[in-house]
Amino acid sequence: MELQNKATSLWGNFFNVKMVQIRTFHMTWFAFFSCFFAWFGIAPLMIIVRDELNLTKNQVGWSIIASVTVTVFARFFIGWLCDRIGPRLAYTYLLMLGAFPVALIGLADSFEAFLFFRLLIGVIGAAFVITQYHTTVMFAPNVVGTANATSAGWGNLGGGVTQFAMPMVFSMFVVGFGFSEAVGWRLSMVVVGCVIFLTGIAYYFLTQDAPDGNFKELREKGMMPPKKSVTGDYFRAMADYRVWVLFLIYGACFGIELTVNNVAALYFYDYFDLSLVAAGGVAASFGLMNIFARTLGGIFGDNFGALWGLKGRSFWLFVVLLGEGCALMIFSQMQVLFLALPMLIIFSLFTQMAEGATYSVVPFINKKALGAVAGVVGAGGNAGAVAAGFLFKGAMEWNDVFLIIGITVACASVLAFFVRFSEEQEEEERANLEAAHLNTLRVRADRANAALARSVDVVEQYNRAHPENAKSF
């Protein structure tokens, strides 16, 4: 049972927040931005935390693993929750409850306490699944890849912005207000916790589950399957091998982005002798590519889909994954900053395009269990980050770790060819795409006719007011 009245254009209505689809789009990316910022808010301050709590390299590695491990399980659960109660309530609960461990990490005074709060904060990483779910139910097949990629990409910007914003907030408390460094990093996290709590309140009042209303009302009207069918659809989706192929693929792109967000500042601080602020600024360049890179992945995914069907989307996914692996291998061998920085940018471009390409495929795997597919694939990103995190906590040099990961990603790119679709589904999606394009043309025609009618009206008013200068139209 397909939800109706999905938006067939994103950019054409981009500022029309009266449309629930567009308003929801803006709320989803901002909510995810806030969560991502909170999730990795401590990463650029780890230099201070490491010294204050006397953390070893091994303990830093465990904190990196903790920040992404629990998210694996949270994403499995949150997809099921979205199918049951809808993305609006799921996001509201996640934001408001997730604010507490973010603010309370400031209570940590030992490695064990810090690790505990770092683990709890990882739950808000499940926000990604809700973001992708919510934009998928709001946008039609011709733009769903673009909408998913843009909302997630702009949300991921939080991982880049936090790299330079948190050192600035920290400096405000230390330099501006005279607090000690030990108090400064703690107060910085309290600020972030307050922001995501308020965002949760806004999400409840400014969004709805679907274009025609909330899931509860739609089920009462018979426009959606009943709640009791959700769990069965969930397990049927998990039995589809393509879901687990995409699980691995997403681990090879988003999992690597998560890892780089956690280690980039420390890597440039330790290996290139940069200051805290400079290392954070360089690390931020990786995350800031999300402003357009992930969107590009979704746009090209939609275009490949329009030209070659669903198999075109899978082929584009292979291309960008291979590019990501090759770029990371080259980056790992850079030993001077002026060479390492441009390679970091290229690596970031392909990584985030691969993420966008992945979620231009996800909406077409199983529409009856969208939450299950989005959640399992999203969990793959964190599973990849956990696996990579174990490499960084060992004795191996970090540039060698990057090389190994790059080789692994390049090899994983061939998995994209295993994401296949039946000829019946290809035909169905071609028909859906054609309908979406026709709807777009109809909307444009209606706008043109309305503009023409307004022009005729203006001419008639002028002729009535100035009969001596009457003009024919």
Automatic annotation (TrEMBL):
Keywords on record: Membrane, Nitrate assimilation, Transmembrane, Transmembrane helix
GO process annotations (BP): nitrate assimilation
Homology family: Belongs to the major facilitator superfamily. Nitrate/nitrite porter (TC 2.A.1.8) family.
Transmembrane annotation, as ranges: 28-48, 60-78, 90-108, 154-179, 185-206, 243-268, 274-293, 314-331, 337-357, 369-392, 398-419
GO molecular function, one term: nitrate transmembrane transporter activity
Coiled coil: none
Database matches in InterPro entries: MFS, MFS_dom, MFS_trans_sf, NO3_transporter
One Gene Ontology cellular component annotation held by this UniProt entry: membrane
Record localization: Membrane
PROSITE patterns the UniProt entry points to: MFS (PS50850), PROKAR_LIPOPROTEIN (PS51257)
Record keyword Transmembrane present: yes
Topology within the bilayer: Multi-pass membrane protein
Domain Major facilitator superfamily (MFS) profile: 24-424
Full protein name: MFS transporter
Pfam families documented for this protein: MFS_1
Record keyword Transport present: no
